[in-house]
Amino acid sequence: MRALFICLAFVLGLSLAPHASAQSFPPGPWRGVWTTLDGQHEFQAELNFTTEMGGHVTGQIRWMLVRTSRRELIPGIGARGTEFIEGTFDQSTGALNIRGVRLEDPHHILGVDEYRLMASPDGHYIAGITGENGTWQGRMELVR
Q1: Per residue in 94-125, pLDDT tens?
Q2: Is residue 38 pLDDT above 90, yes or no?
Q3: Is 21 helix (H, G, I), strand (E, B) or coil?
């Protein structure tokens, strides 16, 4: 009888394990770069987020301006700001679709954006495109 209870506990634990890992994947922080397709603009990025039941995502991206061709932003190189994000993460496909909802940007270097990202199957990187004012010319690559 005791062996039966142990087997049932083991099976129950296995059945709950994927659900628990879905809530914690992918852990952060994720660090990398955002660039425009033409290479004229570059930011360092650090993405942190949590995934709730149903795949709802909330979090933030901390940004630092690294390079720009816009004259009005050149004095802001090295400045930092934060974009708060929300969206969805699909555990089965690795699709991370998020959008900026507000900024903490004292240097006025940021704008809210939309992000269509994919987590690698092994959970080591996230990459994809960003809205970049409707052009979808932004690129983001992040690693743990």
Answers
A1: 999 999 999 999 999 999 999 999 999 888 89
A2: yes
A3: helix
CA dist list (Å): 118 to 14, 69, 124, 143: 27, 28, 11, 12
Residue type, 54: G
Provide the 3-class DSSP secondary structure of residue 84: strand
How much is the pTM?
0.81
Burial of 7 from C-beta contacts in 10 A (0-12 / 13-18 / 19+): exposed
**pLDDT tens per residue across span 41-55:** 999 999 999 998 889
Dig out the tokens for 138 from the structure: 């932004």
Please, is 118 exposed, middle or buried when counting C-beta atoms within 10 Å of its C-beta (0-12, 13-18, 19+)? middle
Q: Domains in the chain, start-ordered, CATH in brackets? A: 26-143 (2.40.128)
Nearest one of 40, 51, 49, 83 to 64, comparing CA atoms: 83
Give 26's contacts (C-beta < 8 A, 6+ positions apart).
Answer: 89, 119, 123, 126, 144
Residues 48, 61: Cα–Cα separation, whole Å? 6
Question: Does 26 sit behind a cis peptide bond, omega within 30 degrees of 0 on the bond before it?
Answer: yes
